[in-house]
Input
Amino acid sequence: MSMDLSYWEYKTWLSHIDFTVVGSGIVGLTSALRLRERFPEAKILVLEKGTLPQGASTKNAGFACFGSISEILADLSQHSEEEVLDLVQMRWDGIQVLRSNLGDSLIDLRNYGGHEVFLESQNELYERCLANIDKVNDLLEPVFRQRPFAEQTNVFKFKKVKQNYITNSLEAQLDTGKLMQQLLRRTREAGISILNSVAVGGFEETGSKVAIKTDQFELETQNLLIATNGFASQLVQADIRPARAQVLITKPIGKLHIKGTFHLDEGYYYFRNIDQRILLGGGRNLDFEGEETMDFGKTKLIQNQLETMLHEIILPGVPFAVERRWSGIMGTGPQKRPVIKQLSDHIYCGVRLGGMGVAIGSLVGKALADLA
Output
């Protein structure tokens, strides 16, 4: 139901807007902050349909990662070496931009390393990854200025897995909540308005302005920037498919010895330590069709599998209890590169982050703002 706006409400928040950003995730807020740098006097508005930033930015696992070795090899089978190198460079540069913008301590970034763990049944994949460590290191050394991948023994005592991991010593973890809290704080301190619980239903470019229709009110803006990632197909015509990711986290576990970010089963599962707990997500490969949805939610099929993996692989013999479960919506497509483009004279988009929002969100947001 549309609101009846007072004169003061309209004048203060919704009139004479230079830039409207749709989406208050990493991309949207970074874009708004970059616009403030470029246009110090501009009136900038961010619209967010959720009470909190919705989608993936507050739902993700907090991996500062660049692609496990099996993911890199899969990418090489579908893309040229130059394209893969460019993708990894974007992820590396994006993390450095994020760190520079917010600071490691404020986002609780910890460099424990990242490890790809292989199931006992994955002989062919395991051997192929081992055989290609030197090849991948040769390819990526110009990005990292060192050779990132190396074998490491199963020091964390996981069960039903190969006795060696393939570790990227540069991979780190961060606190997703602290990251978003800092971005929100800096955005508001920059004099940028953020209106939550406002869903954009459509828009139309009319001459030098864009008319926006929401579920609460209508407004006009000089420029519209769309940063809704997995929900982007609701607003723009592009090959963007939603991909739901289900997650759970345990209650605190005494003397938890696991530290790092971990990729399992070709990246379809991922887990980490946080606050003496294990956070585990994934399982989309159990039901690709069902998980290609914009609906938040959980399924017994995937949640049961996540718990089974905790019992049998990650925490064998260790008592634990699940404290919380949730899901997030990513944006994927046939290509790994995000969609950053001008759609018309006054409309732009930066979407389809392919599950790498933490790594590339800051770069995409900056690039989106620089189009305007």
